[in-house]
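The authors assume throughout that readers already know how a fold can be written as discrete tokens. The format is easy to grasp once an entry is in front of the reader. For illustration, here is how one protein appears when written out as sequence plus structure tokens:
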Amino acid sequence: MPDFSYEKETQNKGYKFVCGVDEAGRGPLAGPVCAAAVILPDDCEIEGLNDSKKISEKKRELLYDVIIEKAIAYSIAYGTLEEIEKYNILEATYIAMNRAIEGLETNADFALIDGNRVPKGISIPCETVVKGDSKSYSIAAASILAKVTRDRLMLEYDKKYPEYLFSSHKGYGTKAHYEAIKQHGVCEIHRLSFLKNVLG
């Protein structure tokens, strides 16, 4: 379970506002990639807070509201479909993370980032944490905000493109999604660079 040990260790080095950063949506065949940055108060307790992939959709929705209520600051941003196609998914993820950090109303002076690569362009000191969403409280909070935000967006797309069943798979490459693409072709939110092998 995540805790505040990474945040406290960083604060002991003299940093005050430590944000956790995570993304959602690097793997899907459709839609943007989403990133969130969260600064939580010291020893903030949010029951059930964990890696967004380890808890149910219903629980994530409940935690989303609690995180927003308790956070000192939070910010959610996207790497657009156009940026994914123009650069690549990794670069678009970095863009989203930078936007999230820069969008914080209280400026962070240090970032804890899920993963093993430091995103390009980050203007503050940072540290990567492998599987950080199951180790750091603020990264776990960011993972939930990013995941819920992106899932909600895909539900909106489902209303516009019901034939692709976005509400069930959120754009990931399930059997049903691939079959829908073969039947209906692609729509404007599909990542064509992810579908080269399918489209031929």
In short: The two ends are 44 Å apart (CA to CA). The chain has eight helices and five strands.
